[in-house]
Specification:
Beta Polymerase, domain 2; magnesium; alpha+beta; 5 domains; EC 3.1.4.-; Four Helix Bundle (Hemerythrin (Met), subunit A); Hydrophobic Seed Protein
């Protein structure tokens, strides 16, 4: 086919596809669009195929979703060119020309060229290939060749093996997506509860010859007619969303990314109100649909497995309401929940009490799902039900699994109405990765892991504290309520306190434990704010925090909840540095609560003694540190750990009067990132120059301690991070030591800060930047706090302004929370005492943060 014909085909194909999309925009019918796009491509492929005049024993076969007869606007067109025998040179060249033409006319072709034997070999080795061939469909060419493939494929199909492989594949995919459909940017195709889960059911059913549609599955008794209707409705809804995603993005996009959520919501007719964005209405509908799909899929998979792997129905009575059947709990008769509504909580209590019970049978799940509306006000006020719910939270095992199951079956939301309000609720704070309900359950999971020996290696200190903490269920209740009031008007900590107080009163929790739970809900943000935003070397900071927590039990509870809360926001938010800040605050506060008055002299002596011990271990002479330490004041020793003091002394004690900049780097003792020490004769704009260098390398600065020695040298230390550090830190250490030293030697003029680009997430949820400048309690320094969207070069912009106004920096805590930064700087300088200059500085800083 020549270029002119190919271009004509391309124009014709594009016009036909656009007409189909416009018809959908006018009258949205997902199944019609998918079918019409598929037929459109079929017709063009047949015409092109005929023009090449291939041998009669060659077939063009549609596979995968295209083979199923569905084609989304920007999906790949997956085809198999089926040969009777390996191709000779001439046929291979002709096939290569065909593929090139298909690309030239604008089709995203996913192709393979195989003989029948090769297809069977690949299918036996790769479950993905076997699945694609399951829905193979002849487009053009030899029918006999295609029929031979289908015959051999069907003969080789082993439904039991196929089921097991697809189930393992499903589990692997769910782990990739954190086992939750409730991420804030879910993949409507691949995430749990999405289209792929529905396709897995139909694949295994087709392989086992149990049906090719939801209606046929209902005919075989695997689901009810009502459930089949619900599955079909949700499948159509997900297909509709995926189509709109492709159309809006003008590319293959299966994630409901923030950039597109409002646009997609508008196509469905959702509108933004004072209370919620249009996207929030869309996403909550999505989450409820995904939840229903997950529930029904569990039932279906169990029923199909029972057909493929029949086991004798060996029922062992647990009590008069429940039996154990092959390791699962099953209702004794169909009317259990109708006759005894309290059994809807009892079933979860039994799951937590019996280690041999791995879940519920499909019969139990179905009955529970259809009876959930019986959990009403009368049910919630029943003293027996309240005692049962409390027993679940106090169980020694299985709490995380049980709470997730209760949420999945809507029992948790029915029992705690305020929890139901946050199911599927979005969080637009740039660092949470999950909906509110999933974040809460993630926090409970994190707390539970501290009680389990198999996870003790992850956070040994937290596990040790939890082992000595009586009644850990108190923490689980606090976790359940700490964010339960999000989305309401007002402070969610204060509103959550009222919910927690009522729960404790209703459930007969002791006054002492009630007070602790309410305290944790009220103060659940306090410890992270103190650790990350205040100067922990200041004894008054520790003293004031100790007054808030009052005793060791409150401190330990708040520490454990805070660690789990931060870790439960997003995999990107937690890091070892934040862990160290919290642990340092905990230990310093514990000493104060134990009766040790904050003493600068004692702390100074302790740190110096620890540092000297570390120096002796590496063979440093006893008095080698003396001259170096004489140049350092008390503030230096209070702001650095003993290990940091020892390391800096070891590498700098013989370079006190170095005429060239000294840069030393090591892997940070906390286990993440690199620690960089810069020792150089103090120079103008030093902090800005260092920030400029790190920004140029795309290194993130987590912490900075700025110190000027008595001899006029600057001793600055930085904690920097970057994903590549873990794999080649030795090379990076050498690079930083050489390049940064060279940069500081040249003292070139500062460059203008680049206007760094905001991330996709930040563009969709822009923050109004804030700047707060206030003197510290002693009037010695100023605390500068900034909050803004993160972007490249932001810290350098701040540093440049500090340099411009000749403001001295003493410490910097650079806190990155997902796509948001909350940085705190301890500064001083004459400009800050001049009201006019101060306002001008703050105004320029706000401008820099807005850019």
């Amino acid at each position: 086919m020549d270029i002119a014909n190919a271009m004509a085909f391309k124009a014709k194909l594009k016009a036909e596809q656009q007409a189909i999309i416009e018809a959908f925009n006018t009258k949205p019918r997902a199944e019609v669009l998918l079918r019409d796009l598929c037929r459109c491509v079929d017709n063009n492929l047949v015409a092109i195929w005929k023009s090449f005049q291939f041998p009669k024993d060659v077939s063009l076969v549609a596979v995968g979703g295209y083979g199923r007869g569905e084609l989304f606007p920007y999906s790949d067109v997956d085809v198999l060119i089926l040969l009777a025998a390996p191709p000779d040179k001439a046929l291979r060249e002709k096939l290569e020309s065909l593929i090139q033409v298909l690309w030239d006319i604008g089709l995203d072709i996913g192709h393979s060229i195989r003989t029948i034997d090769e297809c069977m070999t690949e299918a036996a080795a790769d479950i993905t290939v076997k699945t694609a061939l399951l829905e193979a469909r002849l487009i053009a060419g030899s029918r006999n060749n295609f029929r031979d493939l289908k015959t051999r494929y069907d003969e080789a199909m082993h439904p039991q093996q196929f089921f097991q492989a697809k189930l393992l594949e499903l589990q692997q995919r769910h782990v990739k997506y954190e086992d939750t459909p409730y991420s804030l940017e879910p993949n409507c195709k691949e995430s749990p509860g999405g289209l792929r889960d529905l396709q897995v059911i139909l694949w295994v059913a087709k392989a086992a010859q149990l049906g090719n549609s939801w209606a046929e599955l209902a005919t075989h008794g695997l689901i009810t007619a009502a459930e089949a209707h619900q599955l079909k409705r949700n499948e159509r809804a997900f297909k509709d969303i995926r189509i709109r995603l492709h159309i809006q993005a003008k590319r293959r996009e299966d994630r409901l990314v923030f950039d597109l959520q409002n646009a997609i919501a508008a196509t469905f007719g959702f509108e933004t109100t004072e209370a919620r964005r249009a996207s929030e209405y869309l996403m909550q509908r999505y989450y409820w649909a995904a939840k229903a799909v997950t529930q029904l899929n569990t039932i279906l998979l169990q029923n199909i497995e029972a057909v493929l792997f029949p086991l004798p129905h060996q029922a062992k009575a647990i009590n008069e309401r429940f039996n154990e059947v092959n390791g699962l709990i099953e209702i004794a008769h169909d009317e259990v929940f109708q006759q005894t509504p309290s059994a809807m909580l009892e079933v979860f209590l039994l799951l937590s009490q019996h280690a041999n019970l791995k879940g519920m049978t499909a019969k139990t799940l179905r009955a529970l799902w259809h009876s959930r509306n019986l959990i009403d006000a009368e049910f919630r006020h029943d003293i027996f039900n309240r005692a049962t719910f409390l027993q679940i939270l106090q169980s020694p095992r299985g709490i995380t699994h049980v709470l997730r199951s209760m949420n999945q079956t809507s029992v948790l939301g029915r029992y705690l109405p305020n929890f139901r309000r946050i199911v599927g609720q979005m969080q637009h704070d740039l660092f949470h990765a999950y909906t509110v309900d999933q974040h809460i359950l993630m926090v409970v999971r994190n707390l539970r892991r501290f009680t389990m020996t198999e996870h003790a290696h992850e956070y040994p200190f937290c596990s040790q504290l939890m082992a000595n903490f009586g009644q850990p269920w108190v923490l689980y209740i606090a976790a359940l309520f700490h964010d339960i009031a999000k989305g309401r008007h007002g402070d969610h900590s204060t509103l959550g306190m009222a919910d927690a107080r009522k729960f404790c009163y209703d459930h007969g929790i002791s006054r002492k434990n009630t007070e602790l739970i309410i305290f944790l809900v009220q103060q659940h943000l306090t410890m992270s704010q103190v650790a990350q935003k205040q100067d922990l070397s200041d004894p008054d900071v520790i003293q004031n925090f100790a007054k808030i927590v009052k005793d060791e039990r409150h401190l330990t509870a708040l520490y454990l909840l805070t660690v789990c809360d931060i870790r439960g926001t997003s995999p990107k938010v937690w890091n070892a540095w934040k862990g160290k800040l919290l642990e340092d605050l905990y230990k310093m506060t514990l000493r104060v609560l134990g009766g040790e008055a904050p003493s600068t002299d004692r702390e100074l002596k302790n740190r110096q003694e620890e540092a000297l011990k570390a120096l002796r271990l590496v063979g440093i002479e006893n008095d080698a540190h003396t001259q170096f330490w004489e140049q350092l004041d008390i503030v230096y020793f209070l702001r650095h750990d003993a290990s940091d003091i020892a390391w800096q002394t070891r590498v700098l004690h013989d370079k006190i009067n170095s005429e060239t900049p000294v840069v030393k780097c090591r892997v940070a003792p906390i286990g993440e990132g690199l620690q960089v020490a810069v020792y150089v004769r103090d120079q103008a704009d030093l902090f800005a120059r260092i920030c400029n260098y790190f920004d140029g390398k795309n290194f993130g600065i987590l912490d900075a301690k700025i110190h000027t020695a008595k001899n006029g040298y600057a001793l600055d230390t930085f904690l920097v991070t970057e994903p590549a550090f873990a794999s080649n830190y030795r090379d990076i250490i050498n690079l930083i030591e050489h390049e940064l030293s060279d940069v500081l030697s040249k003292q070139a003029p500062l460059t203008t800060p680049n206007q760094g680009r905001l991330s996709r997430l930040s563009r969709n949820f822009p923050l109004v930047p804030t700047v707060e400048l206030r003197p510290d309690d002693k009037g010695q320094y100023f605390l500068l706090s900034i909050s803004a969207n993160d972007k490249n070069g932001l810290l350098y912009s701040v540093a440049s302004l500090l340099a411009k106004y000749k403001i001295n920096l003493h410490t910097a805590k650079v806190m990155t929370l997902g796509e948001r930064v909350e940085d705190v700087f301890l500064i001083d300088g004459p400009a800050l005492h001049n009201p006019k200059n101060q306002i001008q500085f703050e105004s320029e800083l706000l401008d820099a943060l807005r850019i």
